[in-house]
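Students often ask why we bother encoding 3D structure as a string. The short answer is that it lets us treat folding as translation between two languages. Here is a chain of 337 residues written in the first language.
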Amino acid sequence: MSNWRHKLWRKLSSFQRASYSTTSSRNNKLKLDDLRKLRPMILKRIENRAKDYPVKEIVPVAEEILIARKNLISNIAALLKVFPVLTCKFCSEVFVGKEGHLIETCRSYIRRGNNRLHEWVPGSRNDILVPVESYHLHNISQGVIRHQERFDYDRVPAILELCCQAGAIHPEEILQYSEIHDNPQISEEDIRSLPAGDLKYVGANALMAWEKVRAGVKKLLLVYPSKVCKRCKEVHVGPSGHKARLCGVFKYESWRGTHYWEKAGVNDLVPEKMVWHRRPQDPVVLVDEGRSYYGHAPAIVSLCSHTGAIVPLKYACKMKPQGLSFSFTNPVPNLET
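And here it is in the second language, the structure alphabet:
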């Protein structure tokens, strides 16, 4: 009797699975048919939306960003001739000063260990202003860049691509613009002959240009959509991300996988490179024991503060300008019995 019930139950369950599979396949076919019908309407809507760009009221904002970016690059290049910047050989740590700190925060996969001392080498402008590049689109309504087309498009700075879509740069002149304005020629003799007051003026101008660039990018992102990968921080300036399978370097990511796109912010296009900031009350070399006393600041803010420029108040919480410093004088224990 039990065998008969078992056979009946197996037949009923197989019948339910077959009916469920047929209904699900029918629903999937209906959805595909609906998408095929909606595809021409979606493409037409994208083409019509491209006619509204660039927005004339936003063009002056993009032009101000280009001017501020040009001043920022030239001022930073001038300051790097006077104030040294160091970067770690194995990780992305940066420090503004003649001697690197002794804080054990090196977590490079090459050294196969966490919390080690850094090995310092001379840095460059890219360590202060982190370069962020994206694919250059000829038209905002063009098709999605596929994996096999990734070499057919040029890579340009993301800020220039955003300003190009805003109408401040012609699409055919963006490469020439990047080559001219991204490599200023400044001699060391002219910079070192400047008095301290002029260096303070250069640092103040660099901070002002930095704030203008970030404020302008924040306004443009409200009008022109941009995407960033949640995993690898790849940036794409456009209504939809590309399909180049370049995501997947770390262990938790699938190798050569597709990007996981989300809405981009200001820190994605103009990232803040946070560094340890040495204050006047701190020792000459920052040690690992006093890491809870020291402050942090964006690399460009720390560089400009060395010139004596006034730092905006919003960075004071992280920089701890009036905070206590680590004391090396430890009390000697009493060994008398």
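Translate back mentally: Residues 2-50 form the longest helix (49 residues). Keep this in mind for the problem set.
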